Amino acid sequence: MATDQTILIVDATESQDQILQNGPFHHISVSPNGSYVALYTGDGKVWVIDVKFQQKLSEYDSGKTDEIPLDVQWCGIDSVVLVWEDEVHMVGPAGAALRWYYDSKVNLVPEMDGIRMITTEKCEFLQRVPDVTRSIFEFGSSSPPAGLLEAVGHLERKSPKADDAIQLIRPSLPEAVSACVQAAGHEFDVDWQKQLLKAASFGKSVIELYNSDDFVEMCKTLRVLNAVRFYEVGFGITADQLERLTPDKLIERLVARQEHLLALRISDYLSLPTDKIYIHWACMKVKLSVDDEDTICRTIVAKLSGKRGIAFDEIAKSAFEEGRGRLATQLLNYEPRAGRQVPLLLSMEEDEIALDKAIESMDSDLVFYVLLHLKKKLTIATFFRIINDRPLAYSLIETSARNIDTELLKDLYYQDDRKSDGANVILRESLMQENFTTRIDKLKLASKLLKDSKEHALDSSALEESIKLLTIQESLERDVFEETFVGLSLNDTIFKLTRLGFHPRANKIRSEFKMPDKRFWWIKLRGLVAKREWAEIEEWSKLKTSPIGWEPFFNECLSAGNTKVASIFIPKCRNLGPAERINMWVQCGMIVKAGEEALLAKDYTALEGLLPKATGAAIPEIQKMMQKLRPGR
Predict the structure, then answer these.
(1) CB 3.0 to 4.6 Å from 295: which of 291, 372, 531, 601, for a disulfide?
(2) Is residue 421 part of a domain?
(3) Where in this chain does the record put each Vps16 N-terminal domain (predicted)?
């Protein structure tokens, strides 16, 4: 930053005064390589100093103390160019300078290897003569590349001196060939390009082993450069600039100038992709053509048909931005990738077409993307109307809603009159409710949904009974401390009440739910056994009949380890045969009783089987019984 008599170097944290005394400075220009700085002083002088502001390398007096230049720029890293309204000074090393005068204003455009000077009439490019060019064309040059160029001249004139010239430079012939190739790249004149390349070709033909890659590459480069330098194109670029720019960027610049045909030819020549050129051409066709939309579509499709990598969605987007929505939709029909079609269709508000394209692609993620977009944008009624006729979309929404959005799932089932499915959703919600009142309310709502349908009358009745049971269980939890009833089945509820000794309440619930006698007796029996209410069980044995028979009483008591009570029920098992009752007595450890059962049945074989099992006083008892039934007596 120039201020007063000095210059400050400023960054985000500090500023450093370079302590200069010759200000003020009207222009500051840094060389392309960042090593030097050109300063234009208030007394019309140009200073070139190092970037550290410690050493002055050269000084030039422009003689214009009363007129500040319009611009100061570097020409490469060798010279500084100053421009006034119609005058240009070029300052070289040691203060040497050249001057040019113009009839109009000059604008300077610095380049990496020179500088452009643009007026209203022409564009000139100024650069230092490359070393390789100077070594060839400098007056009196005896360098090997100059000798090679001279040799090819003799060859063209069919002079025997050609061979002599080659022999003189034969040791340095590879270097001479490379120099001629490089020099050809620096030339703007096509004739000199040809002459230098001819010299290089002649030289490499003499060399036994020479890699021609650089030569071939330069031929390609010059062909491209000459094409873009043609006056109808006017792209005055150098070989060094092209190398820095890259052919891909050159194509982009040509396309930006709408030089599509030339861009295509260069791309084909250099084996570069052409899809972006075709796409840009089509976009320009859409923007600038006055034809009707059908004609434009046919023209574009005919031109791009069979071309690889063409993104019709980009062309369609251009058409949409130009207000040609119908043309955009037509063009999108030729885009094979649904992932490119769908987002643009959505931005064009062609929602249903976008959904259909996504479904046709069979890409569930893409379909879901469209559905999420539509759900945010549309009313719920419109959204459901769109998906109802599309099974894949409907299925995806149902699956997604089942996992993450139960409210949407309920709305979906409601509008589709799927009352049973809607009731199931509410049932699942009720199971996740911690608040008892909320759970009951949801169950009532599910029951109401099912009650409206004759097909699900039984389900509705079951839900009402569940509500009734839950209400009773909640009441039981209030009355019976530290016990949990809510969530138990009817059977488990009665079993728990029996086990806890609340027989009247168990009987009342049994009556309210009209539980069958068989089931109630089974539940009550197991509850009493679990509580070890043997006295109550013995009271049952005094009854004449049991809806479940008496064998379950025997089995439950025996399983609980009470053989005494279990044995009470053996005589009541009249439906069983003698052998089964004998086995029951044996299980209770009552061998004599088993023997009496066998004697009563006159089963000598059974008595024989009991004798090994008998112990103590039971042995003579069994033997007496066997004596009574002994055969032949």
Answers:
(1) 291
(2) no
(3) 8-216
